[in-house]
Amino acid sequence: MPSLFMEGTLNDASSSAIELAPPPQQRRMLEIAGLRKRFGTVEVLRDVSLAVSAGEVVVVIGPSGSGKTTLLRCINLLEEYERGSITIDGEPIGYRVDGRTGKRFRMSEREIAAARQRIGMVFQSYNLFPHMNVLQNIVAAPVRVKGVERGQAEARARELLAMVGLSEVDPVCETAGAAS
């Protein structure tokens, strides 16, 4: 049985990020160490540390305003954080630390953009393009951002729809606004 791993707090609420420690043979896909984020005088993330291995599913649960979304936004560098480190598949995101001085430097926008291409994020609000059907919404990013051939992207989109039980929905006829 895996052991329980918990460090840091999200805001002043009673919730924290909790995860089961992965078996040692699994590759760490995400590691966060000592993450701190403030909004003015409010410290939303206080020394949050966690590790997620390949194939592992982690849930962050807490009341509204406890820092869940801020944590996710820091991972994608949609929010800058004051202290700590985030690595994705062993590569730092957002900042590098100078080995000699220990000083932290923001990565270039090109490096950050390259890292973001490997991160998926589902927002709380309904953020599909309403003028596009379901299939077009799923295919847009792989084609436009990654340069995937449209037919290949559509095939993968249909696989993904099947994985979540939506293979029966006609993704070409359903618009994003009607598919809710």
Explain what you see.
A hairpin with a 2-residue loop joins strand 6 and strand 7. With 180 residues, the protein is of the alpha+beta class. It has a five-stranded antiparallel β-sheet with strand order 2-5-4-6-7, with helices on one face. The chain contains four helices and nine strands; from the N terminus they run βββββαββββααα. It folds into two domains: 121 residues, 3-Layer(aba) Sandwich (Rossmann fold), CATH 3.40.50; 55 residues, no CATH class. Helix content is 23%, strand content 26%.
Concise synopsis of the structure shown:
By secondary structure, this protein is an alpha+beta fold. It has helices at 68-75, 109-116, 134-144, 150-163; strands at 4-6, 9-10, 18-20, 28-39, 42-53, 83-88, 91-92, 95-97, 104-106.
Bin the helical content: 10-25%
Let me know the average pLDDT. Answer: 79
The CATH topology of the largest domain turns out to be Rossmann fold
The appropriate CATH architecture of the largest domain is 3-Layer(aba) Sandwich
From the helix content, strand content and strand pairing, which structural class follows?
alpha+beta
Instruction: Supply the CATH superfamily name of the largest domain.
Output: P-loop containing nucleotide triphosphate hydrolases
Quickly count the helices: 4
The major beta sheet can be summarized as: 5 strands, antiparallel
How many β-strand stretches?
9
Radius of gyration using CA atoms only = 19 Å
H/E series: EEEEEHEEEEHHH
The CATH class label of the largest domain is Alpha Beta
Strand content: 25-35%
Number of domains: 2
The best one-word shape is: globular
Uncertain segments:
1-7, 12-19
Main-sheet strand order equals 2-5-4-6-7
In whole angstroms, the N-to-C terminal distance is 39 Å
